[in-house]
Design brief:
With 551 residues, this protein is α+β, with helices and mostly antiparallel strands. It is 32% helix and 19% strand. The protein has twelve helices and 18 strands.
Length: 551
């Protein structure tokens, strides 16, 4: 390694990196390699890390110089319009009429040479209309909420310390933009360098954070005529002279609500081997484990069959299941120029993609449980939804009996979210019940008093049809399993990276978001079933009988 890397030029550093990559490839390291080769490989890794760090430091310094020069340019560009001469002030006489007179024009920009850190078009003396609108646009303020994860900055993100925590996605998005602005402006053909931007470290499992939608609420409030004196926003068409202001904020409906909650554990290797162990019902029904001797000395087994000797059951080795991690990820390619002029669009799409990613993973996890449950058990139609849902308690009781669970042992129930308004309508139609405004807590209590822990989820049995005119499904599937039967294995760290790729840079683009998350589903215990329940909203209740007391 050179004694002083700072004395090398960028071309010399890149040339040395290519040499190191070639030397490392020639080692062909493996578990059978000798210690000397492994030691040499470690030395090469240390050297290339130092060289890349030097390049990154230079790029960061270049960005800082650019920002400082931009501030200087903006400062001298202000108030650059020449002042008009007073009307009573005489026009200066021309000393030499033979020479042409040049009209005095103030320089719009100072002679400041700005080094560009990104391959973007050179700025004019004044910011573009898009930049001016973005600069004066109101800051999007997201409400703070309790979180089960901590978002921190990766190493070498400009203007952020390594490990610095962010309290909102907006602040985290600014870090991604800063990382993108510091990407190298020169590319090495055929190379691909990966730069960290953010890390999401989970601090707890089984909990998900839901963001509210302040932007939409604000637009709704502004358009409410009742808040104004006179109750009207009407104006004549030519009441305003100024051109319309562009709102760069976009509507954002989506939310990550309705995700299945499962106990989670961290997986440090590529998978996990486990066994559910013997089935208690098989142990209970095996006659060889039990015998009975009558007073006359007759020996019978657990099934009452006469035996000549006392039977003795054997313990068979259980089978193990091997579940491997499956990887889900997202990738976003961002146009550099579009991101500089319209960063709100990049942030909006990024947030939407992350919500979509969570919803797709939710669907995959629920479908894994549904597949393990097998064919659904058909529940007979009792002409009312509540009577049909009573079968959930019946099957929960049969589960507790079959596996010798405690009488109050909890049983998990998974239903789609769209069943809640139908249960509310069913309760509201019943006779003799004050239930016109049934809250969600009352619906949940219907299950909890039966020792059923219900989860209403999305991304499973989705409604089909045009929005606002979706027909009510005729049946609904419900998943049931003893509490704790299912768990989700996951890696503890999710990295959100920006990636510099020479091929993308040639197209004036960069990879704005690249993330991968590995998970696996484990069925620790038996007893998962699926029930197909008829959906009949009738409000039917028990018949009322009139009793006439005798005189």
């Amino acid at each position: 390694m050179p004694e002083n890397i700072s004395e090398l030029s960028a071309d010399q550093i890149n040339a040395r990196i290519r040499e190191i990559v070639g030397e490392f490839s020639s080692l062909s390291l493996s578990v059978d390699s000798v210690d000397d080769d492994i030691t040499k490989g470690e030395a090469l890794a240390a050297e290339v890390t130092a060289l890349r760090a030097e390049l990154g430091a230079r790029e960061t310094a270049a960005v800082e110089r650019t920002n400082r020069l931009s501030v200087l340019g903006d400062t001298f560009a202000q108030d650059d319009e020449p002042e008009a001469a007073p009307a009573d002030e005489p026009v200066p006489a021309v000393e030499d009429a033979d020479e042409p007179v040049e009209e005095a024009v103030a320089d719009e920009t100072p002679a400041v040479e700005v080094e560009e850190a990104l391959p973007v078009a050179a700025s004019a003396s004044k910011p573009s209309p898009a930049k001016r609108a973005a600069a004066h646009a109101p800051e999007v303020k997201m409400p703070k909420s309790s979180s089960a994860a901590v978002i921190t900055a990766a190493a070498d993100v400009p203007n952020y310390a390594a490990g610095q925590e962010f309290d909102s996605l907006t602040a985290a998005g600014e870090a991604i933009i800063n990382r993108a602005r510091s990407l190298p402006t020169h590319g090495i053909p055929g190379t691909r360098l990966r730069y960290g931007a953010l890390k999401i470290r989970k601090t707890g499992f089984g909990e998900f954070v839901q963001d509210t939608m302040d932007d939409y609420s604000l637009v709704q409030k502004v358009g409410d005529e009742r808040r104004l004196k006179g109750g009207s926003l009407a104006l004549t068409a030519d009441a305003w002279c100024a051109p319309s202001e562009t709102m760069y904020d976009m509507c954002q409906y989506e939310t990550a609500a309705g995700l299945l909650s499962l106990p989670e554990f961290q997986v440090t290797r590529g998978g996990i081997r486990y066994t559910s162990g013997p089935d208690f019902s098989a142990i209970y029904s095996d006659p060889d484990f039990y015998f009975h001797v009558t007073a006359a000395g007759v020996i019978t087994d657990g099934a009452g069959v006469v035996k000549t000797a006392k039977p003795c059951g054997t313990i068979d080795c259980p089978t193990f299941d091997d579940v491997r991690l499956e990887v889900d990820g997202v990738c976003i390619s961002v146009d550099i120029l579009a991101n500089v002029g319209y960063p709100e669009l990049t942030r909006r799409v990024t947030e939407g993609v992350l919500v979509a990613h969570a919803r797709k993973m939710n669907s995959r996890h629920i479908n894994a449980i549904s597949t393990a449950a097998g064919a659904a058990i058909l529940v007979p139609d009792n002409t009312t939804l509540l009577f049909n849902l009573d079968y959930l308690e019946w099957y929960a009781e049969s589960t507790r009996t079959g596996y010798s669970l405690a009488d109050n042992a909890g049983v998990e129930v998974v239903l789609p979210t769209w069943i809640k308004p139908l249960i509310r309508a069913e309760i509201g139609r019943r006779n003799g019940v004050e239930s016109w405004n049934t809250p969600d807590s009352a619906i949940t209590q219907f299950f909890s008093v039966r020792n059923l822990t219900v989860q209403f989820v999305r991304d499973w049995q989705p409604l089909a049809g045009p929005v606002g005119a979706v027909p009510i499904p005729s049946v609904v599937l419900a998943l049931m399993y003893p509490a704790g039967s299912w768990a989700k294995g996951t890696q503890g760290v999710i990295s959100l990276d920006t990636i510099y790729d020479s091929a993308l840079l040639a197209q004036n683009k960069y990879m704005g978001l690249f993330t991968e998350e590995a998970t696996l589903m484990v069925q620790k215990c038996l007893g998962t079933v699926a029930l197909q329940i008829p959906v009949t909203v009738s409000g039917l209740s028990g018949a009322q009988i009139t009793e006439i007391l005798g005189t």
